[in-house]
Model the fold of this input.
Amino acid sequence: MTIVILGAGEIGATVARQAAAADMAARVVIVDDAGTVAAGKALDIAQAAPVDGYATRLSGTADESAVMDAGIVVIADRVAAGVWDGDAGLGLLARVAGLNRAAPVLCACPHQALLIDRGVHELGLPPTRLFGTAPEALRAAALALVALEAELSPADVSLLVVGRAPDEIIVPWESASIGGRRATDVLAPPAITRIEHRLPRLWPAAAMALASAAAHVMRSMITRAPRVHVLQVAVDVGPSMPGRSAVLPARVHAQGILRMEPAPLSSRDRVRLETALAR
Done:
């Protein structure tokens, strides 16, 4: 398995470091217009291998044709021009699709929701192949906030986040659990309100959290772990409405999204989600 990361900026380089340290792929390639910088960052990460105990081979280049050999492609941020988005990002997606017709494409940055939407609805990429991993960082933040309120470890908390970040983030509290109990039986309403008010301010997440989110999803794809992730996905909201992207739960496999999972929403939360998508 080869993972190709498009962008040697802070997020892209951190994704490469996380992927290498997890030993999830035989090879990680960082691609950036600043090829020497990409090669230098790959070398820095590779030099940590004997200490951290991973065998992943790393390299850096300016040649986008490296995606031809990729099992997974990650779109991140560039050294000079920042996040791949807008028309430049769409052009990149078109080139990637022409060079590799099978590999899933993960958008690791929080401001690529429109790029995902355009890639699916304008370029015709399958929505199972193109999606974003940044919402997993938001869920990790929610887990930490809930654990803090409950005075437990985040490992004792199970919850999802859905909607559209950052303005309409919905936590299905009725299906969330803390220490094996329903979250609403553990947390008082004021605590839930505090968490909901803080979540929008935690978006966008920092580079390390975004890289961890991308690595977490890639690990599930490669190992076929039966986890449910929250992903940024393109959706159709009706024939009279333009395309939208939303944060929704899904399971993944080596080819991308295996299937979408039904969001366990109350009637009120479902109305909130439908309203957010219609805007």
Notes: The longest strand covers residues 244-253. Residues 207-223 form the longest helix (17 residues).
